[in-house]
Specification:
Blueprint lengths: L16 E5 L2 H4 L12 H6 L17 H14 L4 E5 L2 H4 L8 H16 L3 E7 L5 H4 L8 H17 L5 E6 L1 H10 L10 H25 L4 E7 L2 E4 L4 H24 L4 H6 L11 H5 L5 E5 L3 E7 L3 E5 L16 H14 L5 E5 L16 H19 L4 E7 L18 E4 L4 E4 L1 H11 L4
Parallel strand pairs: 1-2, 1-11, 2-3, 3-4, 4-5, 5-7, 6-8, 7-10, 10-11
Antiparallel strand pairs: 8-9, 12-13
Bound molecules: beta-D-fucopyranose (FCB).
Amino acid sequence: MPINLPANSKMLNQDFIFGVATAAFQIEGAAQSDNRLPSIWDTFCATPGKVKGMDNGDIACDHYHLWEQDIQLIKQLKVDAYRLSIAWPRVMDKEGKANQAGLDFYRRLLKKLKDEGLTVFVTLYHWDLPQHLEDKGGWLNRETAYQFTKYADLVTKELGEWVDSWATFNEPFCAAFLGYELGIHAPGLNKPEYGRQAAHHILLAHGLALPIIRKNAPKSQVGIVLNMNRSYAASEKTEDQFACLVRETLDNQFFIEPLMKGQYPQLLKTVAPQYLPTVLPGDMDIISQPIDFLGMNFYTCNHNAFDADNLFKNVKNHRSVEYTDIGWEIAPHAFAELLVNLHKQYTLPPIYITENGAACADQLIDGDVNDEQRIRYLEGHLNAVHQAIESGVDIRGYFAWSLMDNFEWAEGYSKRFGLTYVDYQTQKRTIKRSGYEYRDFLNSRKG
Ligand code: FCB
């Protein structure tokens, strides 16, 4: 079952880039090697009841040692680009000085990626905050934003020559809201007022780091990666429509509006002022400086009904729809709608789809993983990107999540998102049928 796009699709032009993505904590392992400091995810994994099976990132995909073979895997998939993240606790000591051993790992990795002709997208923060900074309040402490600028300065100075595109943060929503308000991600705090304040400090850190990155890496593009869902109302009832609006505002607008317009959503002032963070004079100007690109991660949509206590509650789609192995509804139409809606609401910079993919209950049988649901998922979502482009959205690239199965945060190793299957006992990688179909699709492009 091949992956197809309309023959005239702009995505088939050479300048549209296709890639695969990963993140440091999810694949690297080597948690104690070369002076790496503990991160909030190490602590969280070691706390009983937080991560399924008490899995941790000590070994993960052992990419820290198998990186050369993993670059060959990337090459086999025939992608143009690779998106990875740097582990802050690997490259800086507690005093803020460079840890050369950790930096050397990334130097070797990035140099090799460039030698292999790949376009390299790097995310500075994909959730692995050094634990010593969490001990001082983490993202609830404004000072962490200033610490981030030192880290961004170091990394972009040391590694800038091999990086085409820098993203400051991956998914501030998840880092702040899941980590500080719902407690289902590290550091596992859960107070209602925490999520928004942590988010504000993350956005502030993004803005403070922008000029530093631009100075150190003038030839690279700089942006940020947001995760976005399409929200639907559970019914036509006014209260459900309202619930949907609140959800959309808190999940999406809360992050994109400050970046694009320098303000938090006005709606919150009236309907949910408790969700507004403390903002100091000048913060919003810092946050809303122009960016070269917006990274967007998309997986699913949600359905919302009114709830007297929380304004909205998540409900299941009443229609019979298909879900992935992590319970997320498959909704490519929602992806196209979301992109077009955002395009109508904002003057957006160029967009890269920095993550999109499906968790499937993959089975390795005689060297073959027949993940037909993932192939359909990819084809549906690639076509959604195509439709959005046809509607005028400026989208420049697409990264499948993920290069290989890996540590799926609170789900541990139980959920597999890879185009490549990882046997965690032997660390053997096996390209799944989706990986081959993605490769064949990319090979079929002209030029
Ligand atoms: C995103 C994360 C990524 C991965 C996918 C499934 O929210 O950015 O690391 O876990 O979800």
